[in-house]
Write a structure and sequence with these properties.
alpha+beta, 16 helices, rod-shaped, binds fe (ii) ion, seven-stranded antiparallel β-sheet
Length: about 425
């Protein structure tokens, strides 16, 4: 291009680029020249698209604009030569839209300014390979946010070692403002939801704690009549925890079971002292009264919405059921008996055998273990018996640790209603 026509072109199009006056091929210059005339015409028609032509060398980070729509200058308030740096400085974030995943889906990748500065050479290589890019830039001009959607096609001029990006910008500030407001509202909603869940969780735990408090007071009140030392409950808790762990129950269920077994006889609060504390054998009708403690306990624990109360109710109702169906109150058999009831039944009987009762003498640990083995598949779930036998060392530790105290306490009043 001759110097004179270049000067008039510069004036007419406010051209401030490098290629038309630089050491580049005629074909590149012609291409650029025609494109600028075409884009300028588009601007004259008042197109909402802001066209631009950016240029860079593949081996250089520097980028400049060969052409920019007037409104781009107006938006950023900068001359073409400084536009690239100015634009880069004012970018806050860039949303890059990409097809990712399997199946392919359009996803939005958000980069902040720091990431963009670090990743720019890599992003440029990706654009060169793909031939086009689509992104939304958030820039801040005079303290106000501005979103520009950028659609660009990249063309590589190998002979001139130049890459041109034929791009169009659209001001999408109103749409993106709305999207940001929606995102903000969504975040606020999520925070409220989390707070609400925490509050509900806190209230639920407080409610469960108060239910547990009432029940443990009730259990302690019963212990004053039936398990004065509290050692029966303590050992039962330890035995059932050993079996529950061996069975692989999750921690929550193990915890609920260990608390629930303490309330297995809570229904005895409804049994008259004359029967509950009677010395010697019970008559059949008295035993019928004793049997009602299962249902009484279940009724007492009915309606609780915590896992603990649900397990406690099951234990209270079913700890006298037997594997062969000869137990009470409902004569359930085998897997009809809930697991918690099967575990408690075994632990309760074993503890009754190894503890002093007014109607029987204390059994030795080995004799009691033999009795449990004999009752395998009759009174007890064979699987629970097998787990019990596989953990005898742990069971013995519990018996020995708490048994001595029990012996010392044996001279005082104790429950007389059989394995309870
Ligand atoms: Fe008991
Ligand atoms: Fe009982």
């Amino acid at each position: 291009m001759k110097a004179q026509s270049l000067n008039s072109f510069k004036q007419k199009f406010n051209y401030d680029g490098q290629i038309l006056a630089g050491p580049y091929s005629q074909s590149l210059k012609k291409r650029l020249f025609k494109a600028m005339i075409h884009l300028d015409a588009l601007e004259q028609f008042g197109s909402p698209v802001i066209p631009y032509i950016a240029a860079w060398r593949p081996d250089d980070n520097y980028i400049w604009y060969e052409y920019c729509g007037k409104r781009f200058h107006e938006l950023l308030g900068t001359a073409t030569a400084k536009l690239a740096d100015s634009f880069r400085d004012q970018i806050v974030s860039r949303y890059l839209y990409r097809y990712q995943g399997n199946p392919l889906a359009l996803v939005k990748v958000t980069r902040d300014k720091k990431q963009l500065d670090r990743l720019r050479p890599g992003l440029r290589r990706v654009v060169m390979r793909g031939g086009e890019s689509e992104a939304v830039y958030k820039v801040v001009v005079d303290g106000k946010p501005l979103w520009l959607k950028d659609l660009a096609k990249v063309e590589i001029f190998v002979e001139d070692n130049i890459v041109l990006s034929w791009g169009s910008l659209i001001n999408v500030s109103s749409e993106m403002c709305l999207e940001e407001a929606l995102q903000g509202a969504q975040q606020e909603l999520n925070t409220h939801k989390e707070n609400l869940e925490l509050l509900v969780d806190k209230r639920t735990r407080a409610l469960h704690k108060s239910q547990l408090d009432v029940l443990s007071r009730l259990t302690r009140a019963l212990a004053c009549r039936d398990d004065e030392t509290g050692l029966h409950g303590k050992r039962l808790r330890a035995y059932s925890s050993i079996i529950g762990a061996a069975l692989g129950l999750n921690k929550g269920l193990q915890w609920a079971l260990s608390k629930a077994v303490l309330m297995h006889d809570v229904g005895k609060v409804g049994i008259a002292d004359a029967i509950l504390l009677k010395k010697g054998r019970l008559t059949p009708s008295e035993f019928d009264v004793i049997k009602t403690h299962c249902q009484l306990g279940a009724d007492l624990l009915q309606g609780g919405d915590s896992k603990l109360l649900q397990v406690a109710r099951v234990v209270a109702l079913t700890h006298h059921e037997r594997w062969d169906g000869s137990g009470y109150p409902h004569g359930l058999q085998r897997q009809q008996i809930p697991l918690a009831g099967r575990i408690t039944a075994l632990c309760d009987v074993f503890d009754a055998l190894t503890s002093p009762r007014c109607y029987k003498s204390i059994w030795s640990f080995d004799d009691a273990v033999d009795e449990i083995g004999r009752m395998r598949d009759i009174h007890f779930d064979p699987q629970m018996v097998d787990l019990f036998m596989a953990n005898l060392a742990k069971i013995r530790l519990v018996t020995e640790k708490n048994g001595e105290v029990e012996k010392a306490a044996a001279s005082g009043p104790i429950g007389c209603s059989g394995s309870s």
